[in-house]
Amino acid sequence: MNAHTDALVVEHLVKEYRVHRTVFRAVDDVSFRISRGSTFGLVGESGSGKSTIARCALNLIEPTSGFSLIDGEDPARLRSRALRRLRARTGIVFQNPKAALNPRLRIRDSIAEPLRTHTSLTSTEVGERVASLLDEVGLSMTHADRLPHQLSGGQAQRAGVARAIATEPELVVLDEPTSALDVSVQAQVLNLLQRLKGERGLSYLLISHDLDVVRYMSDEAGVMRQGRMVESGRADVVLTAPSHEYTQQLLAAMPATPGAAASIPGGEERSILL
Ligand SMILES: Nc1ncnc2c1ncn2[C@@H]1O[C@H](COP(=O)(O)OP(=O)(O)O)[C@@H](O)[C@H]1O
Ligand SMILES: [Mg+2]
Asked: What's the gap in Å between 11 CA and the centre of ligand 1?
């Protein structure tokens, strides 16, 4: 890891999908960067291109043009071994934790899988790492032998987080990490993510259609509309006093926050739906 490079740089990213004979531009010239240890929130309506940006940035799909740099390295230019090594330095947390985990694998094996693939740890060391990861995300060994369907949504997402950070990545994509969860456990998972970020010095690309979630979590934010980033900057500015008309409309369309406040470790209070 290079202390002076950004965790993620996305430059002039374009992604077109071919649908029958037409070309649909899902991401249209998007650029942003995430400095080390900070969170960049991507907000916007469903279909505005948020997940496509994340997939292109990690090179899970090929951009039509533009590029990304993960810790200074362009994944599109790496050969398979170096690419696998770079992938191990990134993690993804998905919206639907039960669908993201293999339904036939016990939780301990889902968390162990990236360790077996990407590290040369012995099976004893893998077992120890899994135990400490479970502890770190607030699960106990009793959860380790369960299958995903035997966990609650919140527990399954904790397991998804443990899997995403298993190889000790520096950059983690959170793609709607709490959208599928009951409102009562959303804040718990967000607070877990905030704690892990502090403890591990993680950088997050947070994707959410929920402006409260992005405002609570992010240092900087970008607002997506139909494939374009219409506004970006400091999250508190963009999401409380936006200069762009579309962001103002998004904010106005939000249901009023019912005065609920979650305290963030560190004492600062910000408004968030609980
Ligand atoms: N594989 C694909 N083929 C064709 N169109 C796609 C594909 N993936 C996504 N899209 C389209 O691209 C647009 C952006 O999708 P997506 O990035 O998933 O948006 P978001 O994550 O903001 O909801 C949507 O209109 C979606 O239907
Ligand atoms: Mg999406």
From this structure: 19
